[in-house]
């Protein structure tokens, strides 16, 4: 991980539909990522099993409270991700190809990504793929590893397209 980073990156967690939460705390998170410098109000949630999760107040309101978003049509990327989550939960692994964008001259290093998020036991990869010329064959063993990858790959310079092995 880079010397300029003061915290470990946050991993993304899958929370099943219908999980009941209680807001137990909150904090402000300073970010440069969304429309320049801004403070993001983060809620800390606890489920009935005592598991803690963090979510921005805006995401919480849109995903759990705002009726305009209930029953909305999912976009292609969301449908792809949900389908893969179900496959992963059913089979205990998910094998995908990640094809690096052809225009990208210096892609990020997937080994650094795996190390930074401590995903070595939760995902494996080969720096080649039968599906694309420049890419990886990646096997995910946990939903969290998959979600963390699809959320953060761009930030680590891994820009491209996910492809299935079997349709």
UniProtKB/TrEMBL annotation:
This is Uncharacterized protein. It comes from Neiella marina.
